[in-house]
Amino acid sequence: MPKLAYLGPEGTFAEEALRILAPDAERLPSANVSAALDAARRGEADGAVVPLENSLEGGIATTLDELAWGEPLLITAEVLLPVEFSLLARPGTEIGNIKRIFSHPAALTQCRGFVARELPDAVTIAAPSTAGAAQEVALPGSPYDAAIAARIAGEHYGLVELASGIGDRSDTVTRFVHVTRPAPLPEPTGADRTSLVVFLSDDHPGALLEMLTEFAVRGVNLTRIESRPTGDGIGRYFFHFDFEGHVADARVGEAISGLHRVCADVRFLGSYPRADRLSPQIKRGTADADFAEAAGWLARIRTGQV
Amino acid sequence: MPKLAYLGPEGTFAEEALRILAPDAERLPSANVSAALDAARRGEADGAVVPLENSLEGGIATTLDELAWGEPLLITAEVLLPVEFSLLARPGTEIGNIKRIFSHPAALTQCRGFVARELPDAVTIAAPSTAGAAQEVALPGSPYDAAIAARIAGEHYGLVELASGIGDRSDTVTRFVHVTRPAPLPEPTGADRTSLVVFLSDDHPGALLEMLTEFAVRGVNLTRIESRPTGDGIGRYFFHFDFEGHVADARVGEAISGLHRVCADVRFLGSYPRADRLSPQIKRGTADADFAEAAGWLARIRTGQV
Amino acid sequence: MPKLAYLGPEGTFAEEALRILAPDAERLPSANVSAALDAARRGEADGAVVPLENSLEGGIATTLDELAWGEPLLITAEVLLPVEFSLLARPGTEIGNIKRIFSHPAALTQCRGFVARELPDAVTIAAPSTAGAAQEVALPGSPYDAAIAARIAGEHYGLVELASGIGDRSDTVTRFVHVTRPAPLPEPTGADRTSLVVFLSDDHPGALLEMLTEFAVRGVNLTRIESRPTGDGIGRYFFHFDFEGHVADARVGEAISGLHRVCADVRFLGSYPRADRLSPQIKRGTADADFAEAAGWLARIRTGQV
Amino acid sequence: MPKLAYLGPEGTFAEEALRILAPDAERLPSANVSAALDAARRGEADGAVVPLENSLEGGIATTLDELAWGEPLLITAEVLLPVEFSLLARPGTEIGNIKRIFSHPAALTQCRGFVARELPDAVTIAAPSTAGAAQEVALPGSPYDAAIAARIAGEHYGLVELASGIGDRSDTVTRFVHVTRPAPLPEPTGADRTSLVVFLSDDHPGALLEMLTEFAVRGVNLTRIESRPTGDGIGRYFFHFDFEGHVADARVGEAISGLHRVCADVRFLGSYPRADRLSPQIKRGTADADFAEAAGWLARIRTGQV
């Protein structure tokens, strides 16, 4: 039975994601994303489940930077988890008496409309995680009156759900990924995604255009691009790319080999089945069979057989 | 004397930025970035000073999203502020007794090395701002032992600086911008930057490549690109662009008109002097004089004068 | 009644083209393409009708080079003329006795199959024009036994048609253009073509790609590209382009202004109705209305109205 | 001793080219370019030397079309031959008496200035080759008074050189190629050229841009591009490309494999040493070593070693 680290404490969305990705796994709650990834790196866990991006908040900076700069890990699976927020309080609390709301800043942002409308006099205080906020609120004598978190967190810590579905948007989704230490990759399924980090050799105008052209020429469709600062001053970025296909696909292999040749560094983050099971539209001439046929043709003409 | 809103309370980096950008302005501290921008929008202030990106943390999501989705504002100036963190505590506190450190999550991340090395047993707690953390720590009976914030915050709230320059990197910089309600733009200086938000018509493969080509063909160099989720589900993004030049420049005007024609929406965020005073390298054939000469040529051939 | 020069003598395909383009014009036969164009330039004629390209032979080098280097002329109309060849001889000649065939080299090439099959022992001799060959063959005592030319030439010079439709392909077409001295352009019809000559600033790798991108970015579709040597040594070329649209169209104007800015020289050769009346597929965002709307938007944001 | 066919009769520029390319070869004069190539195809000769392009006239259509459509042949060498024209006549002819000048149309075009200036009353008549014109002029009772051809042709046929260097430009060059039946290719020399013919799948706007991008992305520099009609009507073209490098080079192999995948057909015409011995500028990341290193990297990440 594998053991997987995740952003704890119990009751987080990460725990929900983990239960979907690996229902039978032993769960190891960690204090934060870095700790969960370190547990996987050091072998205290067989892997970790961490958030990569949120449809409202964007990329999760800590995860993106850990995957780019930390000791290498491989993404082996993903899940898209609908995010539903509840207002949770100790039994006996009345909604009209809530003055101090505790939650993760992303959750506070996503529930801004509800708070402004229903609790206009309350102040919001930032917590390290939504489940952590629930845990804290559950303590007798907590300075906070309510938490915003997943319903599961309320159940876990014995809180009452005063309101549910309080996010400003009902369709918010967080994408979680399952990462492991380097190991053989998941087999191609025909509906895969590959993730990559690219560092530019220099930051000349047009460098990003050149990178995108390496993908376009081989018919590889990007699904996400995110720039992150390298830390070397304003204006210096590296890039996270997600794109359709598996590194075992010829077109993907050639495209990222091209990036590897012309960029300062490319870090492969894994090829894994897409959670949405969407198969890519293969552009004419870019299927594996096309590459194989072209390789045969090239071998022939190189020996003068035309 | 103009009045400018900023992320308060007194002692934040935003206040430092404001003092540089507008030394004589009256200062209106706000609870958060959104509140500062709203003060400018509603006319309670003449403008606001807010962080846009940090060389370590990347784009400031709230600012980016407010500028993209909120009532329109224009960037009229920018400043690059070196970020130096100090460990601040109430007089009499000994460093060995610090168990609970309060600060903004970005500051906690940037000082992770120092904390792990010097205060391995301390826990860190997220605060809404670095200055707010200092303010809180200064209260008698505060549950927190120390704050990580700018030195200026310590001075302001009567805290002692136990350590300075405690960031993991000594060269971290935050870029702050001065925004106002729509108004005549700053004059071109020859070393300007323009900011833009672009929403795609549809998310077809190659859409980003097409956008970048609109810039490249007119010789306009990008200095920042940042994707942000539209909120409509994983995989749907819009883009923030910063690039060299002023919207009054012919090449910039033609490039962004091209984007406006082919994209669902383009929001202009302003043209303003670059803080680093770097003049752009003008590609052959893209100076204003080249555009003017070409316009004259086109007018002639359209009347059959060849 | 306008007077038009053409590649004579009477009976050439050029005469046929002229009769279609300008049925009522007075016709001035010229010795060759250059002479016809010079007649138009010097005012001896009001214009000229010359071949520009042939579906089998390609661009007509003399015409292309005259339009590129000679005193400027404007194309005002085009016609696509099916080319049908006949074997023509003096009355009384038997096909079995034909030993020497006279015609323009292009015609000889296009009838190679017929000659090899039906007249394997005959030799072919190059003539300056197909009609000129017919004229020569018609002379008593001509050293040539037969001409390959248009049927009309045979009728004109009193020759007998021994075989018709003898071209190797039945669908050969020559494109003729009507040129005049610089004058107001034909009005846009919605199905127009524009012709251009472009000289590169330098011959760096990628220069052609850059030119094509100027067209592609504005959604202007090329219909013909032809490289021609500049005369300055092997490897130095200039380019003829034909593309969809009229120079009065905003997208065409911007595209060729872009070329004008970045290339050493651009010579406009005219905008005129397409012979095939095909309307272009207008790419999203590139109609005149789109350009006008974008210009209005740009004017507004330049004054700070966002 | 190899036997090579060439455009005869003796005294042509093609013979000069052949003597440079293969001084010891037996020479087989042919009536025209097609005949010379057919002699090579049928084994009557071991190869052929034919003109491919001229710095003044452009591509030699017959050669280009024969290489594209005829039974496959491979280019194994090239030579750049300066073209100098002389005015040649029978002994005793005075220049003032020359009324009829016989030569190949290309030569007549290239000497147009001299003829207009020095022999304004003479007419020019098209011959199948310059040396053939000299041969004809040498016949007693020839209807022609003079030929324009290479000096060598005059020497060969006993003509007197009345004027030399009579071309309008002194620097005209013709590029001749040595072709053979398919056979092992010449070894790479580090300063090679590769020739190719490409047929488009369909003629959509942007197809040419896509082809050029296949080259550009792999850092392969084009040295010649020529469109030729497919014969299927005006507006249908195929393309001849010459570019730097040898098909054995990794970047060349990947680029033309890409073309092969996305185009209807690609015909390889050979890789051979450049006559000018110019080595290519290798773009960063496109040397063979870069491709090999990238292949190793790809193999590793495909097994999950990151």
From TrEMBL, chains A, B, C, D:
**Boundaries of every ACT domain copy:** 196-273
* Gene symbol of the encoding locus: pheA
**Primary enzyme class:** lyase
Q: Which organism is it from?
A: Planobispora siamensis
UniProt domain Prephenate dehydratase: residue ranges: 3-181
Signal peptide range in chain numbering? none
Instruction: List the residues marked with site Essential for prephenate dehydratase activity.
Output: 174
Q: What is the lineage of its organism?
A: Bacteria, Bacillati, Actinomycetota, Actinomycetes, Streptosporangiales
- Source organism superkingdom: Bacteria
UniProt name for this protein: Prephenate dehydratase
